[in-house]
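Students often ask why we bother predicting the structure of a whole assembly rather than each chain alone. The short answer is interfaces. A chain on its own may look different once its partners are present, and contacts between molecules only exist in the joint model. In this exercise we take two input lines together and write out one structure for the complete complex. Read the inputs first and try to guess which parts will touch.
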Amino acid sequence: MAVDTAAPPAVPNTHAPLPQARRAPRRTSDRHPWSSRVIVNGLLAAVALYTLMPLSWLLVNATKSNGDLFGRPGFLFGEFHLFTNIAELFAHQDGIFGRWLANTLLYSVVGALASTLVSLLAGYAFATYDFAGKEKVYGLVLLGILVPHTVISLPMYLLASQVGLVNSYWAVLIPGLVNPFGVYLARVFAEGYVPGETLEAARMDGAGELRTFRSVALPMMAPAFVTLFLFSFTASWNNFFLPLVMLNDSSLYPVALGLFSWNAVLPQQPQLYAFVITGSLVSVLPLVVAFLVLQRHWRSGLTAGAVK
Amino acid sequence: MRPALSSARPDRPRLPVERGPALEGASPMASPRPGLGRRAAPVLFLAPFLSLFLATLVAPIGYAVWMSLFREQAASGLGFGGTETLFVGLDNYLRALADPGFRRGFAHIALYCAVYIPVMVGGALTLALLVDSALARAKRFFQLAYFLPHAVPGLIAAIIWGFLYTPGLSPVIDFLSGFGADWEPLGPDAVLFSMANAATWQWIGYNMVIFYAALQAVPRETLEAAVVDGAGQLRTAWSVKLPMIRSSVVLTMLFTAVGAIQLFNEPEVLRSRSSAISSDWSPVMFIYQAAFTDHDYGLAAAGSLLLAALGAVLSFVVTKLGNRWKEA
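Now the answer. The structure tokens for the assembled complex follow.
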């Protein structure tokens, strides 16, 4: 922890700088008045209701037909129409929704794998080697974290159009490979997980640098790999502005852009309501499941990135 | 560099010195060493990232600076004969700054930040302190429930909230009108709060988890000392826990502010339902419109750089304030 510079040394009964006048009657630490327990847990439950309400609304309303959406609003169930909705969703416009899902998978899985590898290589190099100007280059990379992405999308579009990459898979994939925050995390992880002595031992055994990385360092950084992969995966799954700028051809759209294009014409084409709602559910569900399954790795990434 | 980021080093676990896994085929006698040498290695390892970094981050910024100094103009007054590119110096910046739409956009995001950042960061902090307190039950469940919205992509979150703001679909509007409250979430007075709410919903749990993890790292002894000294739960939270996680709080404020000035998804999605949102409602929307509707690339580039400059100023101010808070 870098934050606990103000912490007193770990001596029990140290007098923390609290005014004596505040001394409250002692009570055993696990016995609190039930009223404050009810207030605290009641508050927490109310916020949980707030965070869970929109997704449950989505779940309930994906089961309704277009007519029931407005006829039986809110959390009232209508006729159970979920599977019909899904079938119609995937059939609409020659199955373009399935195509969008496949594109999204391509952008996020392939993109995240490549991006993770690129970040790990760079982070490992920053952690392991000394070379001239290292910290300057690293500082530049950290500055890259703060560059607003929407700001560089337009010049990136113009540059991409000059090299003929606009409106192609590459236009979305290549910019997604660069993740300065990933390099930062990879460096933190590499410094934590890969002891210099182990690398030295591998070198003494005659392994080249590339081999040392592949056979010794990479396996040791496996948890970092998962965390970084999750970060890049959600970043590209979340990326909306770049595809919006780069892609014209709707068959290249990721699912968010596709749903956006349907959502934008809802006032003119209300028959799309059920598709947008069911489509949102279908595209959110894999992420929710992945998140629940991989919780531990999310947390380790968050804490490595933010607490230290 | 930014101390909050670069001072970050994990406590390096002191693993026992172990021999590397046996590397079959790597002869200990081999000299010169096979494979990559130690001097060339960092160059090779950094090459993929740095070349991409240059191509997709540094080059676009440089190109934006270049573009912002030029203006495309019809070669003849009648619009025949294509366009010519004129060097106009800082004229694009002046045009952007004088544009009432662009200025309104900044006013909008200023108000948006004033609403969103205190509510979201303060809310996340409160939740983290509550869950960390001895009074909370079901801590794992609450963390899960709060974090779950973050698994929803931002654009889809905006679409879902768009439905929840639509009369006839929304259970919230129905619920409130049951009490006689007339709530128009997409009306001119409320729409900014509705956007802030959608963003808060998405980010409050994420930041709560970050704060909670930081709180977990506060040494037990410190908290026990506070209890021995007679501090109650509230007092401990305010005077002991909060000061100890301030670097997390500052970092979160920084990322939140940089994200908030790029506001685009929520207004762009809600625009199809609300007449209160113009097509240049936020600065990024203004830039998008200048570039892709008006094809005024000079203006768009100048606007982008002005926004980036604001981001840089914000980062600087937040970091400075954060440092002062740390020293206090």
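Check your guess against this: Confidence is low (pLDDT under 50) at residues 1-29 of chain A.
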